[in-house]
Amino acid sequence: MSQHTDSYAQIRNNPKFQSLIAKRNSYSFIMTSLMMIVYFGYILLIAFNKEWLATKLGAGMVTSIGIPMGLGVILFTIIITTIYVRRANTEFDAEAAQVLKEAGK
Amino acid sequence: MKTNTKYILSGLVALLAAGAAMAAGADLGNTTKQATNWTAIAMFGAFVGFTLYITKWAAGKTKTAADFYTAGGGITGFQNGLAIAGDYMSAASFLGISGLVFANGFDGLIFSIGWLVGWPIITFLMAERLRNLGKFTFADVAAYRFAQTPVRSFAATGSLVVVAFYMIAQMVGAGQLIKVLFGLEYTYAVIMVGIIMMLYVLFGGMTATTWVQIIKAVMLLTGATFMAVSVLLQFGFSPEALFAKAVEVHSKHDAIMSPGALIKDPISAISVGMALMFGTAGLPHILMRFFTVPSAKEARKSVAWATTWIGYFYILTFIIGFGAIVNLVQNPGEFYVGGEIAKGLKGGGNMAAVHLSKAVGGDLFLGFISAVAFATILAVVAGLTLSGASAVSHDLYATVFKKGQATSEDELRVSKITTICLGVLAVVLGILFEKENVAYMVMLAFAIACSANFPVLFMSVLWKNCTTRGATVGGFVGLIAAVALTVMSANVWEAVLGNPKGSAPFPYSSPAIFSMSLAFFTIWLVSILDNSEQAKKERALFPDQLIRSETGLGASTASSH
């Protein structure tokens, strides 16, 4: 690790690195929270209000509200993951590459 | 003399009858052994032949420990995504979830969602950091700035325990499956899976294991898509029409459209949810897959693909479960024990998807799905064995015992010996645990993964004040708490140990909410109380670890060939 010491110090003191970490950490935190709210919200709804989830979508229908909601949670999971990966693979990676370049790496 | 013979004969008949009755009690599917299904056997044979051919090709590329553990790091994000999906879409989830939908409707959907929501968590918190810090195993990451011996010993224990429980579930699944699919004995299936899996891992390492998983994932997704589309086609692609018919013919009628007994109390609901959500991020065979790709970018792409395929797959299993409800009742003589719906499905509730394959696609497609279901077990078991072997050879042997002085050849040799040992162990455990409930064993693996592996990984990577002592003590506390509380829950206390109903000291379905919180708390407490010189050094290493985990500076790259 010692041969890298200079570039490590340079990266540590680079404000771009600090802002990248701050931005990515808050983004990860928001996305994680969203996922937890959606999933645990759905689970708690099931635990506390089974009747409401069993409500039919329309008169004369058998499909209950809970089913499209459940499928919605699955789609939400896929979409939120894809959105994060898109941003991380373009914006965050470009900024990380810039930080490394400025440190001579 | 004549009387004697008669006596013995009648005694024998009584014994045989008793034996048959016992078998019937254990597994209804056993009573009417299915006729040998040559189509299924031929297709399975073709799969094994083809994958062994790939193994032969992979063997030529598996020369170093890096090749063995991570396929040299040269798998693309898309390929790895399929392989992760292949690792995760186990036979237990394919047959178990469609079986749960078949039995309870909506509850099956709730259950399947839980298995998916861990993937975003891995993506947001772990994937890139794992790839940047690690080389072969998740212990590389957990122990990055810590004293190697204690943290690696913990991580290897956590890996092996999770692998063991997950493996038992797979082996039991294999044995149960072959009775219905091929009319063969349980034991033969377990031994066959053990041997073929060992061939993949021993000779082809991660390269062969990855391709087996990719091929299996493609086959499973194709087969499941065909089944779901066939079912929807019967109802003009109207889910409402499908549900209406299902409500009409299901013995529980409209109850299958609403949440049932799966979620009992809020504490159990959250606890099971936590086990699935954070447990996924602590499964050693899944974490290991992040080291097979060349960069953090590809690692992220792999999870995005994996999440997409797995989510799609769970939507399919939901449709398949409902398809089984409406299709199987139309031919009770074919699919139900004694032709009576009240007696349940031939081969048990987990056979809903398999029977449906015959109903929609005939014998040829039944053969295909049977072969896929079996191939699924092979692929998952191979992945588990590889991660167990790497925990022993890379973490215990090379790092703990040889203090990092082992040569690549030695490490490779130890992984191969361990692979054989794990293969034999898997077969023995598979036979011992024949009567266990498959789904519950997997849940235990998840509880341990989220209470031991995940907190240690999370804290070591993201919390600068975490120390060796905190990580090791906290990890073991989480592990012990998860196992102890599971043993004290109804699933084991009553169902396995035979205590009277209602006597289980731990009232919830999963220990995660308690054991995972306890692990995090212990890591925090022990770390802040740790004022040793070692702890100071470890905290001082955090900024450099952060740079590597966030930018990939110094991260291991794909090997040159």
Brief overview:
The complex is a heterodimer of chains A (105) and B (561). By secondary structure, chain A is mainly α. Chain A has helices at 5-13, 15-48, 50-53, 66-102.
Order of helix and strand elements from N to C terminus of chain B: HHHHHHHHHHHHHHHHHHHHHHH
CATH topology of chain B: Sodium/glucose cotransporter
Mean pLDDT over the full residue set of chain A:
90
End-to-end separation of chain A in angstroms reads 14 Å
* Secondary-structure element pattern of chain A, one letter each: HHHH
How many independent structural domains of chain A? 1
- Helix vs. strand class of chain B: mainly alpha
- The low-confidence parts of chain A are none
- Name the beta content range of chain B: under 5%
What is this structure's SSE topology?
The complex is a heterodimer of chains A (105) and B (561).
Chain A: H1 5-13, H2 15-48, H3 50-53, H4 66-102
Helix pairs in contact in A: 2-4
Chain B: H1 2-26, H2 38-61, H3 65-70, H4 77-88, H5 91-104, H6 106-116, H7 118-133, H8 138-142, H9 148-181, H10 186-234, H11 239-249, H12 266-279, H13 284-287, H14 296-328, H15 332-335, H16 352-401, H17 408-432, H18 438-462, H19 468-487, H20 490-493, H21 512-529, H22 533-540, H23 542-551
Report on this structure.
By secondary structure, chain A is an all-alpha fold. Chain A has one domain. Chain A is 80% helix and 0% strand. In chain A, helix 2 runs antiparallel to helix 4. Chain A is elongated, with a radius of gyration of 22 Å. By secondary structure, chain B is an all-alpha fold. In chain B, helix 9 packs antiparallel against helix 16 (352-401). Mean pLDDT of chain B is 87; it is low at 1-32. Chains A and B meet through helix 1, helix 2, helix 3 and helix 4 of A and helix 6, helix 7, helix 11, helix 12 and helix 14 of B.
